[in-house]
Amino acid sequence: MEWVEIIGILAGFFTTIGAVPQIVKAYHSKSVGDVSVWMFFAILAGVILWTIYGLIQKDWPIIITNGISMLLNGTMIYFYYKFTEKSFTRKKR
């Protein structure tokens, strides 16, 4: 494996795990008050396009890392709406 491939794989790995700390925090706290859902939508759009690009180029590291990123960012968007809905329900009572 050449050094350029190693750099690409590491870049994909660190970009992919970037959302994990926020997901873990939201899951444990059941709170997303300070989260910008639009940032996660923007990242999701980007990783969807990267995945399509990877499929066209048949570049497995791009497909895998961005496919995982789609799942992680989608999870954060799901948590945003799930936990925001709960906080609205609690406020109404």
UniProtKB/TrEMBL annotation:
Signal peptide: none annotated. Coiled coil: none annotated. It is found in: Membrane. Its main location: membrane. The keyword Transmembrane applies. It is a multi-pass membrane protein. InterPro entries: PQ-loop_rpt (IPR006603), SemiSWEET (IPR047662). Pfam families: PQ-loop. The keyword Transmembrane helix applies. The chain crosses the membrane at residues 6-24, 36-56, 62-81. Keywords: Membrane, Transmembrane, Transmembrane helix. This is SemiSWEET transporter.
